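Cross-check.
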Amino acid sequence: MSRTLFAAAFIVVVACGTTARTMTASGSPPGGPTEAARTSPSIAPTPSAASAAHVALYGDVRDGRPLATNPNLVVPNDLMPIAGATVSIPALGLSATTDARGTFNIDLGEVASDCATDVIVNAAGFGVWTYHATPIWTYEHSGGGIRLYIQLLTNAEENTYTHKLETPRPGCVRVGSAIRGN
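Predicted model, tokenized:
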């Protein structure tokens, strides 16, 4: 009974994205199978009191090329992060560079109304990744963060955000210190 309870608690902790250390698998003798350490995905930045209405575009940039030869890889854990990639929002004049973990964070500031814009990612040795009509939501709709998971490939890749239950959003523009639909 106690082993079953331990296994259930371990699964909940790992599923929630908490880092787990190497542990012996439940029911295994000492020296038996182990669970490898895992890292948590990037988490939405917590807004400070001064930026309570600010929205951030954040996420991860990974090397998607190994998926072409091994479709059994676990995404994102088995894909290497890409450090030094540039994530930009040309219409708003904003950009960020990924860190060693392949994560980025762009503070959009205040978003007055929902809108959409293009996001472009460039990295040496990879094709340009473009996502058209990326939704940018107000703080109330986004909870303060919009997360993107990006896999770069050898060739350029272009996609457009579509959702059958949503109407297209107007393009994003900066008006003073806020972003809104035009």
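Residues 2-35 form one domain. The first strand starts at residue 23 and ends at 24. Passed to J.P. for a second look.
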